[in-house]
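Progress narrative, work stream C.
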Amino acid sequence: MSYKKIIILIFLGLVAGSSLTAQTTISEINSQIQTKQQELEKLKKSINDYQSAVIEKQTQATTLRRQLEVLDDKIAKAELELEANELKLNTVTLQIQAVSLDIAQHEQNIANKKNQVGELIRQLHQADQKSLLEVMILNASISSFFDQLNHLEELERSIKRDINQLRQIKTELERRQQDLASYRVQLVKSREETELAKAALENEQQSKQNLLQLTRQSENRYQSLLAQTELEMQQANREITALEAEIRKRLQLQGKEALNQLGDTNFIWPVTPSRGLSTYFYDPTYIFRRYFEHPGIDIPRPQGSDIKAAASGYVGRAHDAGLGYSYIMLVHKDGLATVYGHVSRIDVKEGSYVTRGQIIGAVGGMPGTPGAGRLTTGPHLHFEIRVNGLPVNPLDYLP
């Protein structure tokens, strides 16, 4: 049997045991991944069903009972989203394990091929060191001598093929390492999504408790509070729109110096959105949408947390409504303005200038506390950005 055949058989024997075990393990992991993906598809369907139910009920008559039903659906949806995020997290973890095993298998193959190449080189070296006399003695004829030379040439070509295969495996390994890095990024993102889902669920639970408190009163009382809230929001909107237009005219009359004090319009988050958003811009699931749209975003934060000016500007309104809806409105360059609602403390005066990042007040929203207003759903900052008096999606302007 030739050296080449012996070496190849040795190589295949070394690889067979480890490859079979690795492949079996990877197959088991892939089976688990497929099962979890099927579970995730079922969860997605349930989430969509709850979302449809929320939107449908939102368009119907807004009674306290109906709002509680909507809230129950939103909480159930949030719980499913939390479960889905956890499932995605587990799936990505399994994918990382599978890729790690695959990488380990390739590394073993590379090591085995290196050993094979080393053995072939050693055999070539030994053959090369033989003298012509040794060749004549060890071979029965000239024909067998040339056969040996041809065999050595074939060994050389085999070595080159093995080197090329080794390079291909190395390239594949590097690609898989990049995939692993991508999976890790997905894992971190999934964890963040899970944390945000938990925070959103906590907000919904708090909202439910607030509404359950209202059920101890009459439906008429609830409808009365709702009507008062609607009027309060309409009045605030009219006031903000009118004041902003008036202030801009006033600043223009004062000249460029007054306008320059407004600074730039590179926005920052007024509070850290570490717990995500509880309500989005014109959110279709907003609990009071039948009566008024939600022209901003709600950012959950603990009661009393500092609020920062999202950009430098002019304090157009610092409205303290007692236990009603208190807010701050800042006027900025380029037709932009920001509104900060449900504030429990106001730290700026109307007619003054503020710089980006300056503390202008404190978060409110706790039911029954100053600045919270009626029917508030818990501590958070209501934040708006307006362009020429019209609300726009703040997420299009925030970093």
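Work stream C, second folded protein:
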Amino acid sequence: MRYATIIIMAALSVLICTAAFADIMPVRSFTERQPKTHNANPWGLVYADAITENLPGQVNIHPITYELNGITIAANVYTPAGYDPSGKYPAVTVAHPNGGVKEQVAGLFAQKLAEAGYITVAADAAFQGESGGLPRHTDIPFFRTEDIHGMVDLLSIYPGVDVNRIGMLGICGGGGYTLNAAKSEKRIKSVATLSMFNTGRVRREGYMSSQIGDIQARLKQASEARAEVVANGSEASSGTVDFDALTDEAIEAIANDLYREGMKYYGKTHRHPNSTFEYTRSSLTELMTWDATDNLKLINVPLLMMAGSVADSLYLTEDAIEKATGTNDKELYLIPGAFHIQTYYVPEYVEQEVNKLKEFFGRTL
């Protein structure tokens, strides 16, 4: 009887594990989509010098959707000038910041890399932007990491992509999730980040370790938010900002550069209706127990980490690259005089970053 029980338990374990992994459904196809726009740009792009029409022989943008783990993901694929679907091009995934969308800085770098000859993809995270998923604004590391694996899936079947030359770029929070994906994603040959933001550490400790003293209280609030969903089917959100009510004086009064410059970028200069700092409070139950730098030694491919030299978020990049002991080919590249958000759009900084990326991916892909 004892051995029969053991066998039954073992069989149940296999079934449970199989069921859990059955929910992970890689991307196997994609379809064209009609983008929603809110401005003069036909694709809703808000960055400088964005594509306004697809012209023969030039960089083109291809709005698509694909299914990832039962969620419809909205993405933009950028193809280089003279793109030939039967060719063999290097390719790069571009993951957007927390609260950002594909039409902002992720799109800018996707376009710039396409201009350099790469096929690139920028996708809205699940539960955010034009992508599907409920409840909206869920921000859980598993899904954000899967978003990046899904972009690699997509590139691996996209016409013209050389599957042996795929790289990753992650920006801000997308940088932390890109590092996490790169630990296990062995289809990629190199990984780069810009102004990397370790979302788990910051949600746990507070920005610049400003909330270490109330970690347990905030975890309790997150658990209570989940209980609220059980009881009422809804919950309060965190990070909600009324950009319309935000005055220039209020912005300038913000002490740290990340949030001060972020309010300008997301609320004023590069505003997009799908871009919000909001996230479900229950997401903190996962975010606060996660860290982008756990097991970072598993990354064994070339690593480039770029950040502003005076950004108050620099400590996050410095911590990560120090822990990336699994590769000897790694570099911390500083943009002199740049704050965190300024690395997203200031022309002189973007030019430096794109040139560095072209050098890095040119060598590693």
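The domain at 2-198+241-275+291-364 is CATH 3.40.50.1820 (Rossmann fold). No further action is required on this item.
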